[in-house]
Amino acid sequence: MILNLRVDHKIADIQSMENISKDMDDLFWKLQEKYSINEYIEISTCNRKEYYINNNFIPEDEDLLSHENQNIIIEYGQSAVMHLLRMTSGLESMIVGEDQILGQVKDAKHKAIKNHHCGKSLDAIFTKAIHVGQVVRNKTNINKGAVSIGSAAIDLAEKHMGSLDDKSVLVIGAGKMGRLVAKALAEKDLNAIFVANRTYYVAVELAKDLGGEAILFNDLEEYLASADLVISATSAPHAIINKQRLLDIDMDYENVMMVDIANPRDISEDVLELGVKSFNIDDLREIADENTRLRIKEFGEAENIINDEFILLKESFKIMEVDEILGNLRASMEEIRQRETKKASSKLSDIDGSAKILNNLTNSIVNKIFFDISNNLKKAAKDEDKDVIEAAEQIFHFD
Length: 399
Prior knowledge:
This protein has helices at 14-35, 77-88, 100-114, 120-139, 149-161, 176-185, 200-210, 220-224, 243-247, 285-295, 299-347, 354-382, 386-395; strands spanning 2-8, 40-45, 48-54, 73-76, 168-172, 192-196, 213-215, 229-232, 257-260, 277-280. Helix 3 (100-114) packs antiparallel against helix 4 (120-139). The two termini are 27 Å apart. By secondary structure, the chain is of the alpha/beta class. The strands form two sheets. The chain has a six-stranded parallel β-sheet. A four-stranded antiparallel β-sheet has the order 2-3-1-4.
């Protein structure tokens, strides 16, 4: 059974998402302890947290899944898989059509493979989901001119500050999200752009691409004092800018704007008490809604592609059900072939080339016999002919 646990921007604001994510981690590890989950993939982004689990022992009426936190969405089977296909296609993103989710899903899958908890089923599902995301983007305009969370943050800044021309901007965090911000900023005629990152050489690389300047993380106070706009997107587990830190800086609080696109948040809410104009992911919703309105006509075509690909995925899973039977049968036939070929070869050892001829002959015979059996069993799987499959399991059962 495929099980999906998630919280995302659709049902929770950033504060709730931080808290619910912790609850969801606790729920997952309780399930792990009880059912020894060996196959799972975790997806964690700035506006969603999800687990995909493959486990045939977790019942739908499991008490742990009657979780007191109603903001955790729990879906099973086809519903869980359809959500994944929609997500990789960009239909479930805050910024509809954004491309980043596709890379994030790929990264989550690779991480699970590396840590040995992505089995055959989840591998097939995620491979299909990534393929679907690529097809939707190639065959529709869902991502044409699409913005990212990073560029939406710049749009938000311009909405409140006006043009960023001649402004001094400080970007904190040079990871993937920080790079998205930087890409959007590169189109602006800024007075100066500074990049801070805990790993200094990463900041240097990004600043070089932007024609900006990398700064040491320990020098943040100096550059916070002169910045017109601060955009923070680190992976720190706690706030890195708060009221107390800013109180120690000689700066014009009311003339600086801060946009926090990190999760957990980088900027504490108490900076508002100083008059700082501070915004976070929740404040991007208006820009996200406008982006959705521009792409709504692409939804129908995208969903048609998703539905067609979902049918193909279901057929591939039906065939996977008989793959073990076919594998066992093929191995048994090959063992018999090699044994009998060896016997016959020993009797024909005096004839030049007989061993090779005999090996080719027996191999050809096995292939011809196996071909019809394989095709018929795969057809039964597609047609959901359980009687034929169960009969095959009995007939071709090998100890």
